[in-house]
Amino acid sequence: MAHRIYANELETLHECVETCNYCLESCLEEKDVQMMVDCIRLDRECAAACAFLAEAMTRDSAFVPELARACAVICKACAQECEKHKHAHCQECARVCTECASMCDRLAA
């Protein structure tokens, strides 16, 4: 029943996946897409890392701490990139990624 043990964490991870995917799609609609390339790439990486960690948690993987550590690094990088852009979707993504990184840091400890 790992999904019950990690219920709050899974919710945080799913919110991060959704927010990163929304940011990615919104970045593709911006006038200067080339300026958004790093943001788009990090959104994709962050969403994938969070989804993989969530999947591992539902399996009660023995590697959750290690995966959470990696996920925290990726979430922080995504937040830092998104913070550079004034778009509301980027600012929201930065906020959510920062919260997710903090949660991942706690899981990794």
TrEMBL record:
Transmembrane segments: none annotated. It comes from the Bacteria. InterPro entries: Csp_YhjQ, YHJQ-like. It holds the Pfam family Csp. PANTHER family: CYTOPLASMIC PROTEIN, CYTOPLASMIC PROTEIN-RELATED. This is Four-helix bundle copper-binding protein. The lineage of its organism: Bacteria, Bacillati, Bacillota, Bacilli, Bacillales.
